[in-house]
C-alpha cells in the first residue's frame, strides 16, 4: 500500500523528533513539534504525582507533609543569576490553593485591620506582628513550628526587608518566605487578589531557581496548564529569552528533578569557542 505524501511527511517528522530527543537536542525538537514541551511536561508530571503519592504516605513530619505536596518548576541557568530581594509575581491560569495563610504586619492598628476586613477575602488570614516574631517566635523551634503551620506567608511591604533577619533561612529553604503586599495602594483588595492568583519567582544567587506551580490536590491538567503558562512567561523575564536557560524540570520538595527541557546541540553549535 502506497502511503500518501502527508503520511510519509508525518512519519519522517516523527523520526526526526525522536532523533533530536536521542541527541538531547530538545530545543530543535520543540521547533519542529510545538507540543513537545507539553508532552514532556505531562509525562514528567504523571511520574512526579505518583512518586509524591507514595512518598506522602511515609511522612510523619507535618512540615515535610505540607512541602511534599507542592509541585515546583526548577530552572537551571548556564550562569548564576543576579540576586534580587523581592520576588517576581507570575499570574497563573489556575491559582494555587492555600488553605492557611499568615499575614505579618508592622502593628495591629485599627485602620489597618478595618482595611483588611473591607477586602472581604474568602478566608481571613491569621495576623501576627513584628513584635510577635521577636517574642513568641524568637526561638528556632518556634519559627520552625510557625513555618509548618501555614501554607503561605504575606507581609506588609514596608517591613519586607526585615523578614530574613526575623524569620531565618528555614522559610526560604521551604519556599515559604513572605510575599510583600503594598498597603499604600488604595485598592488593597486588588493587591491581595493579585498575590493569591500568582506564584512567585525568586532571583537567588546560584545557577538554579524554583517556583511553585501547583499542589497534589489540584487536577493534573490544571498543574500542566500552569507549567506551560510559566514556560511561555519565562522568556519575558530575561533579555535573551531562553538562551540563558540550561534545563527546566519538575520536582517536589524531596524528589529527584524530572527534566522537561534541556538545551541541546543547537545551542552548542552557536558557541564561538567550538
Automatic annotation (TrEMBL):
GO molecular function, one term: RNA binding
Origin: domain of life: Eukaryota
CDD domains: Ribosomal_L1
Protein name, per record: Ribosomal L1 domain-containing protein 1 (Trinotate prediction)
Organism: Myxobolus squamalis (Myxosporean)
